[in-house]
């Protein structure tokens, strides 16, 4: 039923069963594409975990990865030991195999959201589910991993975005992520209203956007490099201590500047295929825009992450980032 839940969600079919048992606990469908799992006896160290995928409908590897973890739970190979909320972010975009339908869902996770439309409605529904889930588990440490894949290749194929926050990320996260094969960390310099930022900002969760390779259609993903990440997710599901690695093996960056698209006549001045984290020397012209003029690299070299000239007007067309020391 659990692994089937993903397929049914994608096909728009109602699930065969809305609740039931798994080893160590129970599951119930709390909303379309939102599954809650409640352990009979959570371990003291278990986090209240939100695991989401498909916020962008064409990013399929994370959905396959979560499907595998749920299948192992259903087969009795894992025993539920932590409260979990598993989310398929944008079911209609997933069915269409597109990043989004009308607007980018991952810019809408703000309690002041006033926009109307299917994606704003979905953002409001997901924010309410996350609020209710964490409220059902008071006193427990909170975690949210929002799983994505990137449009382009990357110098670091597996990296995380750490949302902007006033307080530091719990240090064990760096050890867990290093052991899970994450190669780089990008610290956001300002509020970004993404799903992971929502959990961090409003709920104090240890939260990240995880970029797990490159976006490919269903059936074309090689999940082999994600095996260590699967082990981390399984440890979270079982409520046991995940494997720890050396955070020094990861490369840390911080965002310095957000490049916005201000007009129809916006273009990036480097090839579309430029991999994430490519570095440009001082003086390089990076973008031209009819409203904002040209953007050039200043005195310090800048690396480009998530370049995309096709974003909606007013949206982020790239993050410009610099190396940063690892957290103390
Ligand atoms: O590859 C790209 O250009 C986009 C990949 C993606 O969807 N990234 C997330 C990052 C969210 C964050 O900044 O935390 C996004 O753009 O929504
Ligand atoms: Zn994405």
Automatic annotation (TrEMBL):
Pathway(s) it belongs to: Amino-acid degradation; L-arginine degradation via AST pathway; L-glutamate and succinate from L-arginine: step 5/5
Q: Which cofactor does it need?
A: Zn(2+)
Query: What are the AstE/AspA barrel-sandwich hybrid domain coordinates in residue numbering?
Result: 249-323
Residues covered by the Succinylglutamate desuccinylase/Aspartoacylase catalytic domain: 47-230
Q: Which GO terms describe its biological process?
A: L-arginine catabolic process to L-glutamate; L-arginine catabolic process to succinate
Q: Does the keyword Chaperone apply?
A: no
* A Pfam short name: AstE_AspA_hybrid
Active site (record annotation)? 211
What protein does this entry describe? Succinylglutamate desuccinylase
Q: Which organism is it from?
A: Halomonas ventosae
Upper lineage is:
Bacteria, Pseudomonadati, Pseudomonadota, Gammaproteobacteria, Oceanospirillales
